[in-house]
Structures are given as C-alpha cells and as structure tokens.
Amino acid sequence: MKFLIFIFPVLLFACSSTVPYYREVVAHKYDTREIFLRKHLADYRGKSVCFITNASGLGRYMLWKSAANQNLLLDLLRAENIHVPKIFTPEHGLTGMEEDSGNQYIKGSEIITIYNSHSQNEERYVDHFRECNALVFDLPDAGVRPYTYRSVMTMSMRAAAQSGSRFILLDSPNPATILGIAGPVVARENFSVLGEEEIPFFPYYTYGELALYYKNKNALSLYLQIIEMQDYKPGRHYQFTSTSYLPPSPNLPDFRAIECYWIGIFLEGIQMDEGRASKDPFCTVGHPDFMAGKAPPGNKAVSYEPFSYPALHGPFRGRLLNGFRIEVHDPEKYDPMKSGYELIAYILREYPQKKWFKKWSSGNYALDLLTGSDSMRLALENGASYELWNDSHAAARKKFEKEMDCCELY
User: Tens digits of per-residue pLDDT, 31-68?
Assistant: First the structure.
C-alpha cells in the first residue's frame, strides 16, 4: 500500500466503526481519505468497492494523475486486487463541472449519476449496490439542508441497508457551523430531492453526525463506518481553519460564493436570476423588471451594490438584468437566514405587481421545498417580521438539538 502514502495531503485523523456504531481513535494525522486508504482499504482486497464521489473528493484521483504519483487511483486499486465495478456521482457529475449527469472519462468502471434520486426512485439503485461489498461516500458539504448531495447520502444509506453493502462515510467539514442551528425544521410533506431529513435549514452538524442521526431515527439496519476528522472544531469561520476549500459544484467556485449562496438560495424560490452563469455566482442577482441603480438597504455585516449584467441562461437568457451584488463585510456576524428573508420582503414591497413565488412542475411552491415549510412564504405574504417568523420555529430547533446528543462526534 505504499503507493497510497503520496496521494493525499497529511491533515487529519479518523475513526472506524461497526454495527453498532462505535468510535476508535487513530493517532495518525491524515485526512479522512488518507486514513481510509491506509487503514481500511486492505480489508477489501479481493472484494468490490464502489465510490460515491466527485472531483472534490476521491474522484479527482480517478480523473487526473497527481504530482506525487503518476498512476490513476483506479489503476492502483486494481493492482491491489480491489474491484471497482461502479462509480456513483451526484449532481454535476464526476468532474463537478456538469449540470446533472456523469461522464465517460473512466474506462473499466460504470459511472452512474445519483441525482433526482428521491425515495420513489431508490429501488433501482439497490441492485447496483448489491455489486458492491462496500460503498464509500466522499462528497463536500455546502452547509444547508436543501442540498442534493445530502439527499444522495440519505438515499444511498437506505439502498445500502437493503442491498447489504457496507456504507463508509469519509466525513467532511460543514462550512456553515459559524451560523449555528438556524431556520425551520423540514416537515415530512416537504421531503424532496432537496432533502429527506427532519433537520433545520442550517443544521450545523457534519455529514457523519447527521448520518448517525438519520440511521438511528429511521432504524436502518446498516453497517455504517464513519472516518472522522482530526482537530475539527465546529463554530469557527472556514477561513480560520486549516481546511482547503474544495468547490462542491460549478456554481460555488470559492468561499465567497458559498457565503452568498446562503442568502441567494432563498431567491431560488422566487422569479429571480441568481447569477449562476456569471463570474460571481449567487453574489450577483437580478431581474429584468428591477429599477436600474436601485438596491435593498443593507447593514454593517452585508450590503447590496447596484449592478446590471446580461443573463447567459435561464428564463431571462439574452436579456439585460438590473440587480445588485451581495457584499459580505463581516462573515462572523451576518445572518444569511435573516438577510434572505428581508431581501424577499423588500422585493415584494418594491415590486408588488408581480407574482414572485414560483411553483415547480410538481405543483409545490419552490420556496416551501427549499425551506422545508410553507411558513416562510406565508409569513412573507402576510408581511410578518423576520423575528416573529423565526421565533415560531425555535421549539423545533431546540428539539432537534436535543436529539443530536446521541450523534455528536466533534
């Protein structure tokens, strides 16, 4: 296994588990990928291991050679008599640069995209998973509940429980822990590809912790093994940690985009352009009917600067959009939940002639599925203050926080 030593940066340590889950502290300061490859991969010689990943995780070593090792990871695994029959990718494919599908860059392994994989579609993945002795989940987090990678995790856990495959999760940082537990807890009737967990909009916890919670809450008979991070301390701003930023999707190229995304994601619930095709995605937003040079009021933590730009795709493609750029001045103090709410409230007040709340083909309001509740939309329609709306969800957040006592890892 010496070839593995040079592939990954030495950052963090991990733990392993069996069913029932338990923690084993490992005294190696490697990242979760390195620990899995060094400590656990040898257990699967002569067996089949499938990966759920993209170029922000182990997938990049399947696509490109590293400076330290001129062999692709898949070639090295095959040399160790480890079969990789299938690779599963989330939205944006293995490269992380596509809109919704995988790619054919890899020979010898079938690539299957797990996207739009809500519960009614999961049965078809059970047969795929039966070909895998172990499934390795290695995807980045964007910090919010309505994130399709998170839905890939929960669907894959359910399918793995049915197929009998081991589920190995390589934990990754939650970039939004500085925000604490915030927003409404999703109602089951609003489960969709944007989330099937009864968790808040900003859940605070990592994939690993939420996977434990999901397993326990749904009584899944699943072999779950979590490779933990070392020295991970929630509540710190991402830029003050030693963690490298790995873009989770083509629309989130840098941490500025993530900070704007935490506000801009709410605008996906109304008739707006979120600047996905701009050079400043989610930080540049607009609409053709907005007044040029006009922007919402800001505060000391976040401001809005007037800005006009052409729409390169979407419903307003080919039109000049008037809008504004989101500028976060104090990332440790700004409240994206409040900013998103008040931003939509401003648009409803300033442009009352339009029907802003959009519906998806399912007939559901987009904002309801994004936030997990119809309460935000109804509160905005009724002119309620952010504080009144937010306080109405405090008890549900407190209940969730108490339930997470069983599953905290950091």
Answer: 898 888 888 888 999 999 999 999 888 988 888 776 55
Phi and psi at 227, nearest 5°, equal: -90, 110
Tokens of 68: 């330290």
Query: What amino acid occupies position 81?
Result: N
Closest CA to 206 of 247, 181, 234: 234
The pTM (predicted TM-score) of the whole model is: 0.86
**3-class SS string, 1-43:** CHHHCCCCCCCCCCCCCCCCCCCCCCCCCCCHHHHHHHHHHHH
The fold of 255-373 is Aspartate Aminotransferase, domain 1 (3.90.1150)
CATH 3.90.1150.140 maps onto the chain at 255-373
What residues does CATH 3.40.50.12170 cover in the chain?
Answer: 2-247+402-406
CATH number given to 2-247+402-406:
3.40.50.12170
Q: CA–CA separation, 376 vs 129, rounded Å?
A: 38
Could you report the per-residue pLDDT of 270-280, keeping only the tens digit for each? 999 998 878 89
Residue 146: helix, strand or coil by DSSP? coil
Residue given tokens 């729409």 in the structure block = 311
